[in-house]
Amino acid sequence: MTRRRLWRGAVRLRSTLSAAPPTRVAALRQLVAEESPNLFAFAGGGGPSAGGAATSSSGAAALSERAVALAAAAGPVELDAAPLAASLDDRYGRRHTYLRISLTERCSLRCTYCMPADGVSLTDARRLLSAEELLRLAALFVRAGVDKIRLTGGEPTVRPDLAAVVGALDGLRPLGLRQIAMTTNGVALSRLLPSLHAAGLDKLNLSLDTLQRGRFLELTRRDALPKVLRAVDAALALGYTPLKLNCVVMRGVNEHEVDAFAALARARPIDVRFIEFMPFDDNDWSDSKLVPSAELLAALSQRQPGLRRLRTDAHDVARTYSWPGAEGSVSFISSMTEPFCGGCNRLRLTADGSLKVCLFGGSEISLRDAMREGASDAQLLSLVSSALGRKHARHAGLASPHDIARTKNRPMTTIGG
Ligand code: SF4
What pathway is this protein said to act in by its record (predicted)? Predict the structure, then answer.
């Protein structure tokens, strides 16, 4: 990295820190200091002519692209609070207040039901949203009524500027954002979580389909279960409770681990969410692998009596149960057998800037292209409104899981779940 580039990074860092909300300055300073001590020292050293080891050519060369991306992505978001004409309601009266943003198509695992062993073909980096584009869209959606953003992937923790993105989203709270959540496979989480927590991450879901190391290796093609379990401990220690564990139940694969997961939910403040296996491109779905939630609940109630239904939010996709005296709970997400589309409040933004108004719909609109062609915020929102106007009542208008399986859609890993 050249000294000029280093200096530009330092200038952006200084401006970021001076514009950040006061409650986040310390966290951002710590974050950048940890991520790139050289850049941090340089930013405090007064510019390109400052001396010392941190500004030597070898120090400059050691600086990563990551540090500059980090400083850039944490840049101040312009909080334009002007009222917007279009709304995020659809023709069924559903108000869309929840935006899921896929930060990357990459993943650190290779789950057999999600992608082939050699991965999926990735979009050219120039066609992915830049951090600035992503934050512009996030701010626009929040101004239009979104109050919850979930970061997904691929695997969001493989993105180098993740903590900076969380920090920048945290700056949207004055516009109405109430919650920043993330779904992760947990592999890199225990190392990153303190920074993410400091940057403003409120809620966490971990995907975990097995508690057995050998099966984890078989399912994900990586021997990473100990790291994920360390992440569970780290999340609980930092107060992410109840911690949601997402478990996709597949017949003949992990259905017999339901009791082990239930034991975890009884012993710790964890909500284990049993999710029905859903069809996506390249995931080898068949209805013989689908374990209906009703079947699972009946079997679990018989083996572990005393389950009681808990009250949950109207938009919650899960039905949640617990036992008297249990620390946590178990939930059932019956996307296939008992769809919950009537209360759907979800929008999805893919890493390449496409908006999906339904998880199962193949149709998308590219907000990236519109932005790069110069669309104003009002024009972008009008595109979103039109797409919502075409949203179907249920499952993108597809009648059965087989129709969903036959419909061309993205692989799960590039939608973000
Ligand atoms: S299937 Fe589509 S409409 Fe139904 S809950 Fe999921 S995203 Fe919403």
Answer: Cofactor biosynthesis; molybdopterin biosynthesis
Residue ranges of the domains in the chain? 17-69+80-415
Residue pair 407/362 in contact (Cβ under 8 Å)? The answer is: yes
pLDDT score of 82: 66
CA distances from 320 to 135, 249, 265, 272, 293 (A): 33, 16, 12, 9, 12
Is the shortest distance between the CB of 278 and ligand 1 below 6 Å?
A: no
CA dihedral 410, 374, 172, 412 (to 10 degrees): 0
Of 240, 241, 212, 239, which is closest to residue 228 (Cα–Cα)?
A: 212
Is residue 123 packed enough to be buried (19+ CB in 10 Å), middle (13-18) or exposed (0-12)? Answer: middle
Using the mean position of ligand 1's atoms as its centre, give its distance from the Cα of residue 149 in Å: 16
What is the number of alpha carbons within 13 Å of residue 159 lying toward its C-beta?
A: 29
198 lines ligand 1 (CB under 6 A): no
Q: Which of 63-67, 113-117, 272-276, 405-409 has the highest mean pLDDT?
A: 272-276
Identify the DSSP state of 290. B
Residue nearest to atom 7 of ligand 1 (CA): 358
DSSP 355-375: EESSTT----EEHHHHHHTT-
Cis status, amide bond into 154, omega within 30 of 0:
yes
pLDDT at 27 over 60: no
pTM of the model: 0.81
Is 359 touching ligand 1 by the criterion CB < 6 Å?
A: yes
For residues 386 and 151, give the distance between their C-alpha atoms in angstroms, rounded to a whole number: 24
Q: What is the CATH number of domain 17-69+80-415?
A: 3.20.20.70
Are the C-beta atoms of 290 and 338 separated by less than 8 Å?
no
User: In what helix (H) or strand (E) does residue 192 lie, and over which residues does it extend?
Assistant: helix 189-199
